[in-house]
UniProtKB/TrEMBL annotation:
NCBIfam families: sufC. The gene is yurY_1. SMART domains: AAA. PANTHER family: ABC TRANSPORTER I FAMILY MEMBER 6, CHLOROPLASTIC (PTHR43204). This is Vegetative protein 296. Keywords: ATP-binding, Nucleotide-binding. It comes from Paenibacillus konkukensis. It comes from the Bacteria. The keyword Nucleotide-binding applies. Residues 2-244 form the ABC transporter domain. Pfam families: ABC_tran (PF00005). The keyword ATP-binding applies.
Length: 265
């Protein structure tokens, strides 16, 4: 359903993703964990087509369609969605306007959602997420607290009904109750077809959103995979044992070979 093969991506001439492979079947939830600076957000941005990241090699397919050949808008229309680690603020565009046009772009001309239907839908989803209706008319993310931004990302996800959902540290900044609400929102969206890629630092989120697979990312690629028990071991023991097991000295990416004395593969 979603397939990444040998993905390499650079930013400002620095290679960050170094041959990333992952295959996600419909309905599956995959979690990616990994130390800071190992390329997790870069992976998300590269999949979404962020202009700063240049994909130099590899392939990404969503239901057989070549994602890398699509423009940014097309990727969203095809059903890719990213809840960002740091959602940006857009002054002058209300949350409701933003979401309505995002939905309409996906639906295409002549199939736009009516205003009444849209408002009903948005209110229903906001209720599920225990959000005040006030957020409909606030400018997108402007002045939102950290947790409010994250909840709003999930609202977007619920309304856009994507095929592949990428959540980049959706748990960071959420209080304990909000974490449960957001997890319930995600779980409500799980079905036989929709796939999830969940980037997180903490096993706790995975108690609420049970993953099928857990992957560890280091040096711009997946270095270890397992089930939920892998996340539990990482939570308890950290990453040193993985590095030892695999003989990895520096798990981060971005340094050139010269800087590391050529130790990076
Ligand atoms: N715009 C940029 N300019 C320069 N370097 C960048 C840029 N974006 C990412 N990098 C570098 O790429 C490396 C990987 O960053 P990335 O954000 O993908 O890490 P991450 O695994 O998501 O880390 P974290 O867990 O801290 O969120 C880092 O060394 C980062 O500094
Ligand atoms: Mg990140």
């Amino acid at each position: 359903m979603f397939e990444i093969r040998g993905l390499r991506s650079t930013i400002e001439g620095k290679e960050i993703l170094k041959g990333f492979d992952l295959s996600i079947q419909g309905g599956q939830v995959h979690a990616i964990m990994g130390p800071n600076g190992t390329g997790k957000s870069t992976l998300a941005s590269s999949i979404m087509g962020h202009p700063k990241y240049e994909v130099t090699e590899g392939e990404v397919y969503l239901e057989g369609d070549n994602v890398l050949e699509m423009g940014v808008d097309e990727r969203a229309r095809a059903g890719l969605f990213l809840a960002m680690q740091y959602p940006s603020e857009i002054a002058g565009v209300t949350n409701a306007d933003f979401l309505r046009s995002a939905i309409n772009v996906r639906r295409g001309e002549g199939r736009e959602i009516s205003l009444i239907k849209f408002i009903r839908l948005m209110e229903a989803r906001m209720k599920e997420l225990d959000m005040s209706f006030e957020f409909m008319h606030r400018y997108l993310n402007e002045g939102f607290s950290g947790g409010e931004k994250k909840r709003n990302e999930i609202l977007q996800m619920m309304m856009l009904e994507p095929k592949l959902v990428i959540l980049d540290e959706i748990d960071s900044g959420l209080d304990i109750d909000a974490l449960k609400i957001v997890a319930a929102g995600v779980n409500a969206m799980r079905d036989k077809e929709r796939s999830f890629l969940i980037i997180t630092h903490y096993q706790r989120l995975l108690n609420y959103i049970r993953p099928d697979f857990v992957h560890v990312m280091m040096q711009g690629r997946i270095v270890k995979s397992g089930g939920p028990e892998l996340a539990e071991r990482l939570e308890a023991e950290g990453y040193d044992w993985v590095k030892e097991e695999l003989g990895i000295a520096d798990e981060t990416v971005g340094q050139t070979q010269e800087e590391t004395g050529g130790c990076l593969s």
